[in-house]
Structure prediction request, 131 residues.
Amino acid sequence: MSLTGKPFPCTLTALSVAALVHTRLSVDVPKTVTDNFRARSAPRGWAVAGYSAGAHCAARLAVAHPDHCRAAVSLSGYNDPIGSTTRYEDAMALEQAAEAPTTVHVVHIPKSAGGHNMALWRPQVVPVFRC
Prediction:
């Protein structure tokens, strides 16, 4: 379900093994990391990120489970809580719909900067991890 209560597709939930994937990302991966590395426990020290369709699912995971992670990075993801026509409008709607403790910060990168590809996203990766 979208933040407005309307259904919308998610690549992650469309998978026949969605429950297993979801559990893997929200429970198993954090446990493996905290069991084997000096890492903060969730949610304060955790974030998820993705590109394109993976970005959509990262954002959904963070919004749906603020008890697992407090931040998500969506690089060119489709976040469509209001069914608008542009990704920027979708992102702005998601920013407005987020409820504490989740916050959304939108950065608009114009189409003239590049296409839907790694050439556009690569320069954004390092700044994302500095947040």
About this structure: Residues 11-130 form one domain.
